[in-house]
């Protein structure tokens, strides 16, 4: 059998370079297609989430989002199209940003399902099932609930172990940490979570030193174990809170008294009213 030898002339090399460039332009977008894209959600948030109380809280213009329901559905369909195998290949930050955005976007969708005929997300629950347990979310090739996203995919995974997620996932209520007016993204995730935490703790309506007690949100009661797992060295709720003593307005002396137990930590009632724009 005769072998065939192919010799390229110098004049053919530029042509091959163009071909290689064209091939790469086809391959790269295909490789990136499975990565999360949150621009549509980001646009909706920037347009319809209003910062109040110096940025410590936000209100949501649900009526305006309702008028752009097609865009919200397009974003949710984009999330639903992601396969578990693709998700597993992302970085931890890509995964966590995806899950937080999914939780928040489907919470808004749940509110819109009955808006404006509700005063609280709790109005959407039934006698035997809370709104967070309703399985209506097609995500990662399963039909899931909000609880499944938060407690199984996020909190139940050993991949993340970041208690600051509690200041990012939003329950559509005044007592809840603010819905951030931008989407979470992998490249900014740590800074976004840190800012959300500081803003929430600095909100005197939900966390404050009063009458010799440190009164904090019930979030710290419900998820206490998450704040005591050693994040930034915090092995107690007191240590976590005093890590943010500046946000809470505590002096060094008060920080020590909180850690020693001299200043008691108590929990405030939660305001479940809808975080709607008046």
Automatic annotation (TrEMBL):
InterPro entries: DUF547 (IPR006869). Residues 88-201 form the DUF547 domain. Pfam families: DUF547. PANTHER family: ELECTRON CARRIER/ PROTEIN DISULFIDE OXIDOREDUCTASE, ELECTRON CARRIER_ PROTEIN DISULFIDE OXIDOREDUCTASE. This is DUF547 domain-containing protein.
């Amino acid at each position: 059998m005769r072998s065939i030898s192919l010799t390229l002339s110098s004049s053919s090399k530029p042509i091959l370079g163009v071909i290689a460039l064209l091939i790469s332009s086809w391959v790269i977008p295909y490789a990136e297609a499975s990565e999360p894209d949150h621009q549509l959600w980001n646009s909706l948030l920037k347009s319809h989430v209003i910062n109040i109380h110096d940025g410590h809280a936000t209100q949501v213009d649900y009526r305006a989002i309702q008028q752009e329901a097609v865009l919200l559905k397009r974003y949710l369909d984009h999330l639903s199209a992601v396969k578990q195998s693709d998700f597993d290949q992302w970085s931890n930050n890509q995964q966590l940003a995806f899950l937080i955005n999914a939780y928040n976007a489907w919470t808004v969708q749940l509110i819109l399902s009955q808006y404006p005929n509700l005063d609280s997300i709790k109005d959407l629950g039934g006698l035997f099932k809370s709104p967070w347990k309703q399985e209506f979310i097609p995500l990662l090739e399963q039909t899931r609930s909000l609880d499944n996203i938060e407690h199984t995919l996020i909190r139940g995974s050993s991949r993340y172990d970041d208690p600051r997620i509690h200041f990012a996932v939003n329950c559509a209520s005044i007592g809840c940490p603010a819905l951030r007016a931008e989407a979470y993204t992998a490249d900014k995730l740590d800074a976004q979570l840190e800012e959300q935490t500081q803003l929430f703790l600095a909100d005197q309506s939900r966390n404050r030193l009063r009458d010799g007690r440190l009164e904090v949100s019930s979030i710290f009661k419900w998820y206490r174990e998450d704040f005591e797992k050693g994040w930034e060295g915090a092995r107690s709720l007191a240590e976590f809170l005093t890590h943010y003593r500046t946000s809470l307005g505590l002096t060094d002396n008060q920080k020590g008294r909180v850690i020693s137990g001299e200043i008691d930590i108590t929990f405030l009632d939660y305001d479940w009213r809808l975080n709607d724009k008046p």
